[in-house]
């Protein structure tokens, strides 16, 4: 089970190790772009790390309104507590069965 505290701790460690953000600058209210100097390319890298952490596909719409560290924590927590949508994967597998697995 992923708690908000566990998500926050992972995020803090990732921001420090991946982007060399000073730990004291990372607070729930810190703005990713203005306070932590995370740009759009960094945001993509962070999304990849979050996908590895959660084991879930992250849709751009999940993070459309993210501005602060707490916004990320809340979005990841919501993502993890949402039922997994296997419909896209199921459709892909059906297509493979239909075309012989190619």
Main attributes of the structure:
Non-ribosomal Peptide Synthetase Peptidyl Carrier Protein, Chain A; 0% strand; disordered C terminus; 102 residues; mainly alpha; 54% helix
Describe the structure.
With 102 residues, the protein is mostly helical. It has one domain: ACP-like (Non-ribosomal Peptide Synthetase Peptidyl Carrier Protein, Chain A, Orthogonal Bundle), CATH 1.10.1200.10. The protein contains 4 helices and no strands. Helix 1 packs across helix 2. The termini are far apart.
- Kindly report the average pLDDT value: 86
Cα gyration radius (Å): 16 Å
CATH architecture: Orthogonal Bundle
The major sheet is characterized as: none
Give a short synopsis of this structure:
This protein has 102 residues and is mainly alpha-helical. It is built from 4 helices and no strands. The longest helix is centred in the N-terminal third of the chain and has 16 residues, at 4-19.
């Amino acid at each position: 089970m992923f708690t908000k505290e566990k998500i926050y701790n992972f995020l803090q460690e990732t921001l420090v190790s991946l982007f060399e953000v000073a730990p004291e600058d990372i607070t729930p209210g810190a703005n990713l772009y203005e306070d932590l100097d995370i740009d759009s390319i960094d945001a993509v890298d962070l999304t990849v790390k979050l996908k590895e952490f959660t084991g879930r596909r992250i849709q751009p719409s999940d993070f459309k309104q993210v501005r602060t560290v707490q916004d990320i924590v809340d979005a990841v927590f919501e993502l993890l507590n949402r039922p997994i949508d296997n419909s896209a994967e199921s459709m892909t597998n059906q297509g493979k069965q239909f075309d012989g697995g190619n």
